[in-house]
Amino acid sequence: MTWSDELCRIFGRDPEDGGLTLDELPSWVFSEDQPILTAMVTDCLVDGKPIDAEFRIVRADEVVRTIHMAGEPVLDTDGSTASMWAVLRDVSELRRSERAVRESRDTLRHQRRIARTERRLAVEVQEAVLPPWRGSLRLPARDGFPGAGPAADGAALDLAAHYLPSESSAQIGGDWYDALELPEGHTLLSVGGLTGHGVTATCGMAMLLGAVRGMAVAGIEPGALMGRLNQLLAVSSQPALVGAVCGRYDPRTRTLVWAQAGHPAPLLFRDGTGRPLRSPDGVLLGATTGAAYTQYEERLEPGDLLVLHTGRLARDTEGATERLLALAPRLTAAHGAQECVRTVAEAFGDEPRGHDACVLIAKVTGARA
């Protein structure tokens, strides 16, 4: 065997020491690659076939290299094999780069599978927790809590809600809307949203919404309810900032008692115009411990329309409020809450949003006295 100086350097040998013999060469090759080398030499020298394959070697300095070998037989005048020639290249870096690309591709596929799984879980949690009704819903239902009694004539709420996804359908957030019949014929109205996306956000939303419902059923006033939610977040293992509005509507007196935590105020539409309700004090839930939350009371009239939203209908919250107020003529002329929701969805459905958004609309039914 005749070796070039460069081939000696590939094998980590001094060119002055020369190359290896054909018998010595296999001892440098990975045991699992030795059959490859044997087959190549046999194919070329015995069977007169061209060769093209790779094998790995371990040099004397314990460096591992990957060698690509291509060659052909040299035939004698009678057609038999007289010798062979081969070109050997060190392709270690190339193969290392290819492995890195494959591993990156495998990692990316794995991450995509995880992302799809997490999104599916987030959607399932969201669908399991948010109210199952679609379209309008009339509350009080009259057959809810024992002893609730009938609602005052004309004072029930016609309700509808809509969930608007973010620009990226993969980013399921922690926004919610909710309407629930309470004891004594009252109705709970709430909207809110957690920071973050994915399963963590939707699970946090499920925990908070369950707490809101439980405390409201227990008769806790909206202001005190916000304070206790803030305490709950303070001891949670998953810190989060939460904006929320929570209101309790009494159909007998047509009064709404409500509180907020760093959240846009509900909008009241009446006689073709709209305005935000005066906001009680309240910082974002989870922002500071011991925060105080006050509550305000608003007297409603039959035909009034309340719009509660999570503030993310558009990139600019103030701009979203102004655009909602500009819809006042259409909203007050609508025949029901579901038509109002469709109007809002048409106005904001194509809006580029970095977060999900919810809107809950409640219309006081009946005629004025």
UniProtKB/TrEMBL annotation:
PAC domain span: 51-103
Q: What molecular function terms (GO) are annotated for this protein?
A: phosphatase activity
Cited SMART domains: PP2C_SIG
Q: Does the keyword Cytoplasm apply?
A: no
Give the matching Pfam families. PAS_3, SpoIIE
Alphabetical UniProt keywords = Hydrolase
In its UniProt entry, what is this protein called? PAC domain-containing protein
